[in-house]
Design brief:
- By secondary structure, the chain is of the alpha+beta class.
- The chain is about 45% helix and about 15% strand.
- α10 links the parallel β5 and β6.
- α4 packs across α9, α5 crosses α9 and α6 packs antiparallel against α7.
- The longest helix is centred in the middle third of the chain and has 26 residues.
- The two termini are about 45 Å apart.
- About 20% of the residues have low confidence.
């Protein structure tokens, strides 16, 4: 007897069309499909919902199939109240949203690999901007020296933001979730993968819902005590470009704002912070904005330590859009 196949649906579609045309199941296998997907039957299948396919007899239900049916039900229940557009944002950006929730601040080495490399690069560039601004503010350099050098750092920042988009978060259809979505023999997941997906889908869908409403989702960066100076350094002479932006932080990142610094500087975060944030621009679910935002974050750290989300507002200092 063959094992059941499972995939995550990636767009809103009619149940009967999915079964009869997209999957092209023969008539003899349709009763088994209906049995395995009772919570999808006669409904529109939302993005993010789990679909189970099997060519076994309709009267046979193995423990694995029973487990998958329970996981599919858990996913559906977790997504109650989520709109189709919000669910589509979740599916398309699952990797980055899960990473935000998992890593927290990179100041204590919680993140590794390409993601960590690019976020650390942004931290270092922000610190370079801070140092440059201090030299300018104290008269060690003229405007003619300061602004060109800052433009050079801004250009490097743009490259780093592109890098975070392409490498750190797999936004260009290279991430694991991107590879498995759709319907083909390469799209099916193992039971363990579906179990992991079901565990995370509730909280990830909440972040996706915020992004769909024009709110950014951010990770706090460890830039020491210079957050407000970095904000000033980036804004001077380009105030019109530094527009206000709302953003949300994941639970681990919120708690880490006041804890990520080393050498007793945690208290300085009460004055402000800087984060890298991701949002959905006017282009819709097919694009993702990657931004650096500065604002007053730290005063919320204590109260947010036991919570998943806290909405803030801050100055959007840089932005790059991945298409």
């Amino acid at each position: 007897m063959s094992s059941p196949h499972v995939f995550v649906n990636d767009r809103p579609q009619n149940y009967n069309y999915l079964r009869d045309h997209l999957l092209a199941l023969p008539v003899a296998l349709r009763p088994k499909f209906d049995q395995l997907n009772p919570y999808l039957r006669n409904n529109v299948v939302m993005p993010g919902e789990v679909v189970i396919v099997s060519d076994g007899p309709a009267h046979m239900c193995t423990p694995e199939k029973t487990q998958l049916m329970q996981l599919a039900q858990d996913v559906r229940m977790s997504m109650i109240g989520t709109t189709n557009s919000e669910a589509e944002v979740m599916v398309q950006n699952f990797d980055v949203l899960q990473s935000i929730l998992s890593y927290g601040s990179i100041g204590i080495g919680a993140s590794t690999g390409a993601w960590s490399k690019h976020l650390a690069g942004i931290e270092n560039l922000l610190k370079e901007i801070e140092t440059l601004h201090q030299r300018w503010r104290y008269g060690a350099m003229t405007n003619d020296q300061f602004f060109p050098q800052r433009r050079t750092l801004f250009a490097r920042m743009e490259t780093q933001l592109k890098g975070v988009g392409r490498v750190g978060t797999d936004l260009n259809n290279r991430g694991k979730m991107k590879r498995i979505l759709g319907i083909s023999s390469k799209s099916y997941l193992h039971t363990g993968e579906i179990a992991g997906y079901a565990r995370h889908v509730r909280v990830v869908s909440k972040l996706a819902s915020s992004m769909s409403k024009g709110t950014y989702v951010g990770i706090a960066l460890d830039v020491g005590a210079g957050a407000l100076e970095i904000q000033e350094a980036c804004s001077v002479g380009r105030e019109s470009e530094c527009t206000r932006a709302k953003y949300v932080e994941g639970g681990k990142t919120a708690a880490s704002i006041g804890l990520a610094t080393v050498g007793g500087t945690a208290g300085a975060y009460l004055a402000g912070a800087v984060c890298i944030a991701f949002g959905i621009p006017t282009g819709g679910a097919g694009t993702l904005a990657c931004a650096v935002i500065g604002g007053s974050l730290g005063s919320y750290a204590g109260g947010m330590a036991g919570s998943h989300f806290g909405e803030q507002a801050g100055e959007k200092l840089f932005e790059h859009i991945e298409r």
